[in-house]
Design brief:
The complex is a heterodimer of chains A (about 180) and B (about 350). With about 180 residues, chain A is mainly α. Chain A is built from 6 helices and no strands. With about 350 residues, chain B is mainly α. Chain B has one domain. In chain B, a hairpin with a 2-residue loop joins strand 1 and strand 2. In chain B, helix 2 packs parallel to helix 12, helix 4 packs parallel to helix 11 and helix 11 packs across helix 12. Chain B starts with a helix and ends with a helix. Classes of the chains: A mainly alpha (about 180), B mainly alpha (about 350). At the A-B interface, helix 2 and helix 3 of A face helix 1, helix 5 and helix 6 of B.
Chain lengths: ~180, ~350
């Protein structure tokens, strides 16, 4: 009767396709939605879809980090700011700029479709250790051996950015007196 | 003639069913485990509410609920039925979709986070190795942190969608508090990760076979537990729902079962946090010479920690909001970093 392996492969492909389409739809929601809260939520769902895609391709660590850093830490700050400033709906009006933007989006989508169907796809070269694939160990080894300079430079840049933000925020007010 | 065709078809169907069942044993075991874990975690909540009310009664020198059933066991059931049948009120100015989404996010993330918690060594039944965990994720502890981080959205969305300034304040407070204390939680867990050299919760328990990490890392244990209490929004860190300032915080506008879902989320998070502390610092299911089943050892430790949670609630008053933030950023975080530095140095040497 049925070959179970092909059924499994088919389900897997369907799941991957569904998650991918959801990710694209969510990212469309980010730019088309008028309420900032819903925009942020669409962005979160897009990031969760990306994490699921990582998970479906066995990159477990990357998926978890994607959720912690982007969907968790970064987006919660976005929502925080929206809540503080009060998210008002923006009034949309049909204008020349808007139609140009739509034209651009659909051109890009068309190009994406073309590159997916016609463009050359390349095989991944080099050997992949199947046991370590996608684990924290593999990523750590790669980061701290081959890319150590870039990694450390990135951390220095981030530190400078953090210090800069604190300087710009200027804590000029006098702190409350301790009781 | 027709009968033959039917029996032949039935035979084929039977063969196919048997074949697919035998081919998919891991899938079936996984589904059964998922259902068992979800149901067990949800039905722990009423029992925990009962335990909390009884213990709180004793701590405050009164009896606690004792009228419905023996020892008041019927009380949680009566409460559940009341909450299920209560009218659900949504004020017209609320954002309907987000208002419904928020409690669902809280409960969903709470249950999913429990999926990777192991609660016993694997054993064999009918030639199949049954492992007592939902999923063996390689980066299990990161998974728990990621999912419980998503749980904050439930509270923030509840605050945003209610269109009520107290709810909004509660939502903002909860997000600020949980982001701040997540750092401490992660960094104190990191010292255990350094000792074990693995992100898997199962490896961590196996590394504690001789000595539990609480004896090696007492400071990390303390920091992790404090941050854990703050993460679950329990007293003395229940600022998001501080009654005297915010009415009830982010769930002011919720009634009936949706209100109960926030409570469910909180209690399930409490169980998950106790389980995490047990796995990271108290040696998981290792019983250290006491002849009991591993799973009993694990559940016993978790129940003890839950009692400590309740004990804390009835002992300490709620702390002021600015002091909470100062405590998190200026006391706990530096201590964590120091502890991490020392642990790392010793490990390298």
């Amino acid at each position: 009767m049925f070959d179970l392996a092909t059924v499994f492969e088919f389900t897997r492909d369907t799941v991957i396709l569904t998650v991918g389409i959801t990710a694209v739809l969510a990212s469309l929601g980010v730019i088309l939605c008028s309420s900032p809260i819903y925009c942020a939520l669409y962005l979160i769902s897009h990031m969760i879809c990306l994490a699921l895609l990582f998970l479906l391709y066995n990159a477990e660590f990357l998926a978890v980090v994607q959720i912690i850093v982007y969907a968790g830490a970064v987006m919660i700050l976005f929502l925080f700011i929206i809540a503080l400033l009060g998210g008002k709906k923006e009034i949309q009006e049909n204008s020349l700029e808007r139609s140009i933007a739509f034209g651009l989006i659909f051109t890009l989508l068309g190009e994406l479709y073309l590159s997916a169907t016609v463009g050359p796809t390349k095989q991944i070269e080099g050997t992949i250790n199947s046991e370590m694939f996608g684990t924290a160990k593999a990523i750590g080894l790669e980061l701290f051996s081959k890319h150590i300079v870039a990694f450390e430079l990135a951390s220095a840049v981030l530190l400078v950015a953090a210090v800069g933000v604190i300087c710009l925020a200027k804590f000029s007010f006098t702190p409350l007196k301790r009781r | 003639m027709g009968l033959d065709w039917v029996t032949g078809f039935l035979n084929k169907l039977w063969d196919f069913t048997v074949q697919s069942l035998t081919d998919n044993v891991p899938l079936i075991i996984g589904s059964v485990k998922a259902i068992v874990i979800a149901v067990a975690v949800m039905s722990v909540v009423p029992a925990l509410v009962w335990l909390e009310r009884r213990l709180m009664g004793r701590f405050q020198v009164r009896l606690g609920p004792n009228r419905v059933g023996p020892f008041g066991f019927g009380q949680p059931m009566a409460d559940t039925i009341k909450l299920l049948f209560k009218e659900s009120i949504i004020q017209s100015s609320a954002d309907k979709f987000l208002f419904h989404l928020a409690p669902a996010v809280v409960v969903f993330t709470a249950i999913v986070a429990f999926a990777v918690i192991p609660f016993g060594a694997p054993f064999e039944v009918f030639g199949q190795t049954i492992e007592l965990w939902g999923a063996n994720v390689n980066s299990g502890i990161l998974f728990v942190f990621a999912i419980s981080g998503m749980g904050i959205y439930g509270m923030v969305l509840a605050g945003l969608s209610s269109n009520n300034k107290y709810s909004l304040m509660g939502g903002l407070r909860s997000s600020a508090q949980m982001i701040s204390y997540e750092l401490t939680l992660g960094l104190s867990a990191l010292s255990v990760i350094i000792l074990t050299g693995s992100l898997s919760l199962i490896d961590m328990v196996e590394a504690q076979e001789i000595v539990p990490f609480i004896l090696i890392q007492p400071l990390a244990f303390l920091l992790f537990f404090i941050a854990g209490v703050a993460e679950t929004n329990r007293a003395p860190f229940d600022l998001p729902e501080a009654e005297q300032e915010l009415v009830a915080g982010f769930h002011t506008e919720y009634t009936g079962m949706k209100f109960a879902m926030f409570f469910m989320g909180e209690y399930i998070n409490m169980v998950t946090m106790s389980a995490l502390v047990t796995l990271l610092f108290l040696g998981g299911w290792n019983s250290y010479g006491i002849p009991i089943w591993p799973i009993v050892a694990f559940v016993g430790k978790v129940v003890f920690l839950l009692c400590v949670f309740i004990w804390l609630r009835s002992t300490f008053p709620r702390i002021r909001y600015d002091r909470l933030m100062t405590f998190g950023w200026k006391v706990l975080l530096p201590l964590c970093l120091l502890n991490l530095l020392i642990t790392g140095t010793i490990k390298v040497l």
